Amino acid sequence: MTQTQDRQAQSYRWVILGAAFLIGFMLVGMRETLGNFFKEITGELQWDREKISLVAAINLWLSGLLQPFTGHILDRFGARWLFVVSVTLYGLGVAPVAFTHSFWYLVLIYGVLLGSATAGSSISLSNALVAQWFPAQRRAFAISLNNAGVALGRLVLLALSYQALMLYGWRQSYVYLGIAILVITIPAALLLPGRRRTTANAAQVARQQRTARAPLEVAHWSASLRTTPLWQIMGGYFVCGMTVNLIIHFIPFATDHGYTHGEAVAAQGTMSLAVFCGSLLAGLVSDRIGRKNVLGLAYALRAIAFATLLLWHHWLALYVFAIVGGISWLATPPSVTALTGEIYGMRTLGTLSGFSLLSHQIGGGLSVWLAGWLYDLTGGYDISFTLATIALVAASLVSFSIAERRYSIRYMPADVPTTGG
Predict the structure, then answer these.
(1) pTM of the model as a whole
(2) CB of 153 within 8 A of CB of 31?
(3) How confident is the model over 240-288, as pLDDT tens digits?
(4) 103, 199, 272, 291: which has the highest count of C-beta atoms within 10 A?
(5) Do residues 12 and 193 lie in contact, with contact meaning Cβ atoms separated by under 8 Å?
(6) Residue 75 parent element (H or E)
């Protein structure tokens, strides 16, 4: 590889990061707006909370089930057209939510169409793409920058969707969101690398070929499913999904306890700022203290946040949850992606990241749906938040037990032979 090729690859990786940042900003930010519209939708359509929670769960489950397949497409064919098709379908699917009048219509549009579209442009896939283009010493921080886009999207779109709700109602707000997604994300997706062997792509392939073989790297991704570290990572990520997706119920929870909608949005906005800071901090810390330690600490902090909501019935509890929980919210994806790549190698990272997100979305869908069902059954969220706290303590212990120093390429001797000769 020539110096010119190397410089082009170094420049192009920042273009990739910028495009992924914008896509995560819009798509994940849009998903977070459901909490804003939750009570308005259920009130107008006279649904109980289990119904809309089930729709959100179907969205998460379908997205998760398709993740290993879209991850495999990413590994084999590149990101560009996978992401272009995905964000186009997503934008075209958001606007029709405005015309919801029946449960099965929303299942089809929000559950099936948007769930399928999300699978091709998820934060897990963009993290895998970023990880493949950045060297090990910058990998976790680059991923954390990508996740910071998600945090900013949560903050900005949560505030804008609240204002749109006040001015136009939830139906017209979805039309505007769909248009914005199409205008912003399609040009960004076209900047991502495709399968065509550009100079930058050739330089990236050459760099990967000089990379030492990861300790558990295998010829086919399926062999990784027979190893312990992957299941430890996916088990923790199951709980991560189970707990972060409960945020859909945060605004309903707060307003149930006497806070105004605006106060709840302010608390969640504070959380988005904490998520942004936590994401950047986690990337820096992960490169220094190890991936498993960041995961274990993040799950422990989140357990404290949920316990605070359960045990302290004071308005300050909302902000303690927002800040402590927010710091941990997106602290996990950089370490999950980086650790997976450093144990199993970069060549199948898209596929394995897909399996990790599958476990994340299964947990998320179950918790969102059960929280709605348990609310209708008991009139509150105490059982849901208690289960989340217990599961987070278990996830923290499992994460700390990962044998990172034994299996991660970061701790291998410098003279280990490289792949590709």
Answers:
(1) 0.78
(2) no
(3) 999 988 888 888 888 888 888 888 888 888 888 898 888 888 877 877 7
(4) 291
(5) yes
(6) helix 49-77
